[in-house]
Design a protein that fits this description.
The structure is a homotrimer of 135-residue chains. In chain A, the strands form three sheets. Chain A has a four-stranded mixed sheet with strand order 2-1-5-6, with helices on one face. With 135 residues, chain A is α/β, with parallel strands linked by helices. The first copy, chain A, is 36% helix and 30% strand. Chain A is built from three helices and eight strands. Chains in contact: A-B, A-C, B-C. Chain A binds chain B through residues 1, 3, 15, 18-19, 22-23, 26-27, 36-46, 67, 104, 106, 109-115, 117, and chain B through 7, 45, 47, 50-56, 58-59, 61, 63, 65, 74, 77-78, 81-82, 84-85, 89, 96-97, 99-105. Strand 6 of chain A pairs antiparallel with strand 7 of chain C, so a sheet runs across the interface. Chains A, B, C: This is Tautomerase. Chains A, B, C: InterPro entries: Cis-CaaD-like, Tautomerase/MIF_sf.
Chain lengths: 135, 135, 135
């Protein structure tokens, strides 16, 4: 259901670190937002050094943008963003000063996965059960 | 007006399939949201195999993210997302289980194209007429 | 705080033009939205010629997508998008007809930078002061 898009300059994260970060984002999202890991997508955009700027100068931030369904309780989203930001530094070693995490959202019924409209937050279980039953 | 961003692993879609998918997304959006095809943009991000993860493992989903103007009737957006998801599998052969379509939105007046603030949904005709008249 | 993502076909913008555009977007955002330039990020995605379509045909638009915090006054966002669109053409020479600027937003507390939840619009000063004081 969610998509996390991580943007860095090339060679900032090696392949193992990308895999580790993808694993952590998946674990955290799955735990907090009640979504099986099989529905959590993480992609990495690795750009050239002269394609990333902060304050108008070439820079090396780690930008993480996540899309989630609208309607999760506020406290849950706050916990999500906090744990993702914390994991980003813990897994990559990039200091928090260069890490920006942004969560965006839109209604669950504006999204389709596996041929089915996504469930609103809180209705995941029935949705997953129907998926398993092939109904 | 809209932008559709399709993200896959490299070599998932060949050039002809990308062109076909761009054509179908354009046709569908134009028909349902009353926007001439000349205003429909489709871009493809083709990432390395170790830059795309599902469930924390390298994977090959087709992720389609569309931006549209806020204010289209709900039923219209539901139809839009359904037809896009259906076209994605029909055109690419990628099974629905690996396709995620997400529509996001923001107000039309948060966007400018051709030097002019975009029209709210329903006001496209007057906007296009003014464009043609150069007024 | 904000992230501006500029998408073009490769070789549309040379390195100097990218730097100039990043500089202008930073200056404009900083001035209008009261954010120090050190918090303004600009990234460029340069795609292959057969990865960008308008009206279902390969095309060369300049697509600028900005993420900002929800809650800026409407007039401020209107000014922001107008000045960014104007700067895009002025800096790159790409005619307005091929430039699309879209601003998206989500709540400030859905984002973390430097380890701290972002301030709501209007509360930047206290937030920056606390940052400087290390409190």
């Amino acid at each position: 259901m969610p998509v996390y898009t991580c943007t860095t300059v090339q060679s900032t994260l090696d392949a193992q670190t990308r895999a580790n970060l993808a694993g952590e984002l998946t674990r955290i999202h799955s735990m907090i937002n009640h979504v099986p890991g099989t529905y959590v997508n993480v992609v990495f955009h690795e750009l050239a050094a002269d394609e990333v700027y902060t304050d108008g100068e070439p820079a090396k931030p780690l930008l993480i943008n996540g899309w989630v369904r609208t309607g999760h309780p506020e406290a849950q989203t706050s916990q999500l963003v906090a744990e993702i930001a914390s994991a980003a530094t813990r897994v990559t070693g990039i200091p928090a000063q260069r890490v920006l995490v942004v969560i965006q959202n839109s209604p669950a019924h504006f999204a389709i996965e596996g041929g089915r409209v996504l469930p609103a937050p809180g209705e995941e279980e029935a949705w997953l059960r129907a998926q398993r039953d092939g109904s």
